Amino acid sequence: MVNNNCYINLMAKKMFEFTLEMLAGMEAQVPDAYAELIRKTGLRTEELTDWSRKAEHMRIPLDPASGVYEEHDGYFDLPHIDIHSIPVTDFPLYSKWSYDRLYRYDMIKQPDVLMFMFLYNGEFSLEAKRANYEYYEPRCIHESSLSPSIHSILASEIGKEEEAYQFFEFATRLDLDNYNRNTREGLHTTSIAAAWMNIVYGFGGMRSDGERLSFRPTLPQRWTSYSFQVMYEGVLLGVTVNSEHVGFKALQGGTASILVYGQEIKVDAAGTVLPLGEGMLA
């Protein structure tokens, strides 16, 4: 229904780039296996050239003046609607409004742009994340169950602590409180899983898209502490956060090197305790 959806185009660009990188690495490191792959698939050199060209020239709609990525071609020209003016009885909109009415305005169901900023977090500046969050948050109706959690994670990163917590509550209580008025259709299991992401990627500040696992923990004002575990390079890491300290411990599997507030630390069975980062008590 639209041209050049920003999320789809960026993910297609990443797919081409990743595929080309993996094939180049395979050719250099395991040439026999690469030759067998070419034999089995019939992959041609001109196909690789075509993929590279498509990745290089992929259209990623962006307003350079504001730093806001455009949802799709023509999105910025759509009439604005105040989503808070929509009667609650109209929700869920997908069962009450026709498609031509749904897509008539600059209202979005889910945060496409914020999603790819989360997935490829390290490639975007804090200013870019803030500009896009502040533009798209007032336009999102969260009829996707993944939407509140992604908003919570980005809100936490850009320092909007209260909004981060409110979206966390939205994600965790989506079905309990029937926020979207459609729990009768089934549980939103993605939102339940994303509630875990809220804690780990949001308040815990974990990022897994870089060369090394990193953390920038915060503590919501309503909480006294929280903890979680993640498996990283064969090491089970235990993470604890309270109002004063952040603790990391290798529960099994040896040692692991991670980044905490930008500082490299080695985590072993003895554990490491650091002060909660300056200004990190949300």
UniProtKB/TrEMBL annotation:
InterPro entries: 6-hairpin_glycosidase_sf, 6hp_glycosidase-like_sf, Glyco_hydro_65_C, Glyco_hydro_65_M. The lineage of its organism: Bacteria, Bacillati, Bacillota, Bacilli, Bacillales. It comes from the Bacteria. Pfam families: Glyco_hydro_65C, Glyco_hydro_65m. One of its GO terms (biological process) is carbohydrate metabolic process. Residues 2-197 form the Glycoside hydrolase family 65 central catalytic domain. Residues 206-267 form the Glycoside hydrolase family 65 C-terminal domain. GO terms for molecular function: hydrolase activity, hydrolyzing O-glycosyl compounds. This is Maltose phosphorylase.
